[in-house]
Design a protein that fits this description.
With 320 residues, this protein is of the alpha+beta class. It has 2 domains: 112 residues, Ubiquitin-like (UB roll) (Roll); 165 residues, Fumarate Reductase Iron-sulfur Protein, Chain B, domain 2. Helices cover 37% and strands 12% of the residues. The strands form 2 sheets. The chain has a 5-stranded mixed beta sheet with strand order 2-1-5-3-4. A two-stranded antiparallel sheet has the order 6-7. Strand 6 and strand 7 form a beta hairpin. The N and C termini lie far apart (82 Å).
């Protein structure tokens, strides 16, 4: 056997359709070219399965250049595999040794429903973007590059946040299945620039409320998201999102109205308990957040307390 080929054993998650009970299937694979990418290896495995009359492994992929964010699965417990700052399509088989047993499974998160095998529905991330991840202005022709001077340091921070490709690895690795790194990157890239400031408050409130409504968890500072992010988006952006969220709740009159189309089907189908009073009808849809309202109210009290405490401290310091 050539030193450029290896024999491996795949333990792949197989699930026929959403809601079905899945299982791991063991597939021995021989003669794998070590120069292949991981997705090319899956392609060769699928060709073999098709020739044997078996169902090929379903997996997401598109550009295969680490740009689109379409590919992604958990390899040996790590989203996108063992290489740092790489997507699954950039992972090559030379990273593995002859005889390795490789476990491959889809993203695991309540918000990401398995479609088939390694494919998951990541449309909840798109719904968060629809809630406010944009600047709603008529741009017309391209403006002059120097029309709005922006400091280089600020532009670099915004570009670093904009590097997020929305692959969902941060959600898959987080023990809470939180999308905070994703949301913070999309909020930061606009909050840092003058073009995004007019809608900053509405954006932060709406995107966080939508994230809560779509069953994503909250951040508890495990930092696992930063470790597996293929674009190395920093958790500093989460701190910025928290500041934007708190400022919007304290110093802004922006209101959160969640689009009914973004509410999960389970919430739409929920029926009131027998004998429970009916809620008054409203002409405007209101955000149904599992934690956003409590966090916002609590944050207002905390910030007010800290403000008063700081004012007292400064007053005492001026007399001492």
């Amino acid at each position: 056997m050539s030193t450029d080929t290896i024999n491996i054993t795949l333990k792949v998650w197989r699930q026929e359709r959403p809601g079905d009970k899945g299982r791991f299937e063991t597939i021995p694979v021989s003669g794998v070219d070590s120069h292949m990418s991981f997705l090319e290896m899956l392609d060769t495995v699928n060709e073999k399965l098709i020739l044997e009359g078996k169902d090929p492994i379903a997996f997401d992929n598109d550009c295969r250049e680490g740009i689109c964010g379409t590919c992604g699965c958990v390899v040996d417990g790590i989203p996108h595999g063992p290489n740092k700052a790489m997507t699954l399509c950039q992972l090559h088989m030379r990273k593995f040794a002859d005889g390795d047993v490789i476990a491959v499974e889809p993203w695991r998160a309540r918000a990401f429903k398995v479609v088939k095998d390694l494919m998951v529905d990541r449309s909840p991330l798109d719904k968060i973007i629809q809630a406010g991840g944009y600047v709603s202005v008529n741009t017309g022709s391209a403006p002059d590059a120097n029309a709005i001077p922006i400091p280089m340091e600020v532009a670099e921070k915004a570009m670093d946040a904009a590097a997020c490709i929305g692959c969902g690895a941060c959600v898959a690795t987080c023990p809470n299945a939180s999308a905070m790194l994703f949301v913070s990157a999309k909020v930061s890239q606009l909050a840092l620039l003058p073009q995004g400031r007019p809608e900053a408050a509405q954006r932060a409130l709406s995107m966080v409320a939508t994230m809560d409504a779509l069953a994503f968890g909250n951040c508890t500072n495990h930092k696992a998201c930063e470790a597996v992010c293929p674009k190395e988006v920093s958790i500093v952006n989460i701190a910025r999102l928290n500041r934007e969220f708190f400022k919007a709740g304290v110093a802004s009159d922006a209101e959160v109205h969640l689009n009914p189309a973004l509410v999960p089907e389970t919430e739409k189908r929920a029926k009131p308990t027998a004998g429970a009073p009916k809620a008054p009808k409203s002409s405007k849809p209101v955000a149904k957040s599992t934690s956003g309202g409590m966090v916002l109210t609590g944050s207002i009290y905390i910030l007010t307390f800290l403000f008063v405490l700081g004012f007292i401290w400064q007053s005492l310091a001026s007399f001492l």
